[in-house]
Design brief:
single chain; 222 residues; alpha/beta; six-stranded mixed β-sheet; globular
């Protein structure tokens, strides 16, 4: 066996690897960065570091006051979950969601970006399908948990509808990724009057949006 193979922990279980990963995060995190977060926010922030192996996201991560308890309350009542990406829809744990509310099913997670109606409106108006989907599904977005990990105009559309008084999301996870409209949509989301968890800058992505909601659920599920 070569030297690299000898360094691997071949016998470790998945649970053991996760525990060791979290231990190393705790050991390596800059105390000043950890101090930015409340005791209920830090486990969610730590989950995002675990997902990315990137401590550099911590200065860019923001929680609005009360975002965590409001999100937990929404999960208990079985709030609709709206996503801008089928990757998010596929990645969310239904067993974990069911432990908050047994009514949760995969169909409880709405991602209409590929629907024919969405495509038709996008073509008619010359807008992205992500924005068209938000405009078509305002009723479902009201009181929903909105997870944005891909499309900045979906985030911007939700902010615009919220500021117009047409919807009031239970939680907005603002983590689109990329170069066009991304930073601007996140800056715009600072105007949201309700709960928001935002990763500023260009970084983001569907795995981070999933990890955020999983991290929130793990506060109660362990």
């Amino acid at each position: 066996m070569n030297e690299e193979a000898e360094l691997l922990s071949w016998q470790a279980t998945g649970a053991e690897i996760e525990r060791e990963s979290l231990r190393r995060i705790e050991a390596e995190v800059d105390p000043a960065q950890r101090a930015r977060f409340t005791p209920e926010e830090w486990p969610v922030a730590r989950r995002l570091v675990h997902t990315t192996a990137d401590f550099g996201i911590l200065p860019e991560l923001e929680f609005s006051p009360g975002a965590i308890p409001r999100a937990l309350a929404a999960l208990r009542r079985g709030a609709r979950i709206y996503t801008d990406s089928n990757m998010i829809r596929a990645g969310l744990s239904i067993p974990k969601l069911k432990r908050f509310n047994p009514a949760y099913e995969r169909e409880s997670i709405l991602c209409p970006v590929a629907d024919p109606e969405t495509a038709a409106l996008a073509a008619e108006r010359g807008i992205t399908r992500a924005l068209a989907a938000v405009e078509l599904h305002q009723a479902e977005l009201d009181g929903a948990i909105f997870l944005c990990g891909n499309a900045p105009l979906a985030l911007a559309g939700v902010v615009r509808l919220t500021l117009a008084g047409r919807i009031a999301p239970a939680l907005v996870v603002a983590m689109p990724v990329g170069f066009v409209n991304v930073v601007e949509s996140k800056v715009y989301s600072r105007q949201l009057p309700g709960p928001c968890i935002r990763l500023n800058g260009r970084r983001g992505g569907s795995p981070l949006a999933v990890a955020t909601l999983h991290g929130i659920m793990e506060l109660e599920l362990g």
